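Q: Could you predict the 3D structure of Protein RFT1 homolog?
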Amino acid sequence: TSKICIFQVFFNYFVQFLLVYVCFISQLIFKVSAYSQTLWGEVQKEETTLNGFAEATYTACAAIAIMLMNILSIDWDKWGEIALVLISSVDCGLLLIFSQAQTINVMYICYICYRMLYQVMITIAQYAVNLFCQIKLNVLGLKLLIFHDSTK
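A: Sure. Here are the predicted structure tokens for Protein RFT1 homolog:
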């Protein structure tokens, strides 16, 4: 039965879409993070920088947004892909504004929003995959754990 579970998980279109999506978006976020430091350096005129504050702020905002997502009962099977498309579109706009901004405050705001929405997208993708995979993979993981422990 574990072979059937693996087949159902790894050959499901929706799961494959989300896995590829998460891979691409994760690589993009690392590129944006590295590039943002360079852009901030080009625009910053004052000696006091708030780069660390921007990083901490996006983390706090993302945590709040994800907690709100947990409170709301949203059917991610129905709205997951639409939410990912909308958030990706907003992220695209934020990156365009970020790349053309001439003030550091606008850059910080765009960066905070972009990184917060990234965390929200990853959470949505995990919800959607977990709805389909959680039971099947837990059964498979339990079987592998039992098999691994029995070989000692």
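Q: Anything worth pointing out?
A: The mean pLDDT is 78.
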